[in-house]
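WARN no homologs supplied; continuing
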Amino acid sequence: MLFQKSVQLRAALFGFLLLCAAAVQAQTAKLPNVTILATGGTIAGTGATSTTTVGYTAATVGVQALINAVPEISKVANVTGEQVFQIASENISNEEWLKLAKRVNVLLAQSNVDGIVITHGTDTLEETAYFLNLVVKSKKPVVVVGSMRPSTALSADGPINLYNAVRLAGDPAAAGRGVLVAMNDQIHAARDVTKANTTTADTFRTAELGMIGVIQGGKPFFYRDVTRKHTVDTEFDIAKLDALPQVDVAYAYANVGAVQVNALVAAGAKGLVHAGVGNGSLPAKTKPALIAAREKGVVIVRSSRVGQGIVARNGEANDDQLDFVVADTLSPQKARILLMLALTKTNSTKEIQRMFSTY
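OK structure emitted
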């Protein structure tokens, strides 16, 4: 009799465990599938002490350790991780951009991937985000995230930023908005955001145009849309590209001369972005060198070092006569990215100007 009851209890317990396992499996199946691509940066950095927030070593922590540090992620997404590369972001090159973008496109083409999070150093995070914004070929969410404090610091911002980024990448509301940057509980569009402070956690800002949403309680709320074309609506295809044309930035300042421009052209630049003062003004000592560069076939884009505002075509220079392009509202560093991609398609300044007015 006791043996029979024991068998019955064991059978009941086994049945209960099967039901629990089925419930867990069903719950897991409902969660979005998010892949985290790690590239290094401060979010993967370590310091000598818990109070070290400057002078730390970036890009030392692997992707699985980043995921393990935020166990709450497993409740909101089925997460997998890949270490694409492990560098401080000031060292990122065109080659890394192409490698990363190609991997993103491969993953997003898979039906079992709903979104992607890219962990990245903050120094060039805005540039990587904008590059991806122009070359990713999917409407699925792509979220770039970093941190301003290393993983070993008191109140490190990496874990909450990563959690929010995963929530954002797994949310259908984030689809079709282009590449997003999730930092400090805010959502920014890749085209417009910039790093605005050297060290503080609220460094990523879109000063004039404003962030497009916020993340509160792990849920994204959107308040404005992205109107410039991006991702699937761009004309850029990097699938067969192994390199990008050389494009450099020449920076204007009081008493600047022609040395920068001449040196960059001599070094092989196919395009130059001039980060002018004010409304993209051309200093008198620099202008002849820019004109000469254009006559040699180098495409010149007038931008501004100011950081906000439209560079007016035919405003501070006769762009039609000089055959120059203007950068619209793009920062010099982002104008460089668009010009590189534009030069993979055409050398026509009219076509390139159309691209700057489109993207």
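The chain has two domains: 24-233, 247-358.
OK
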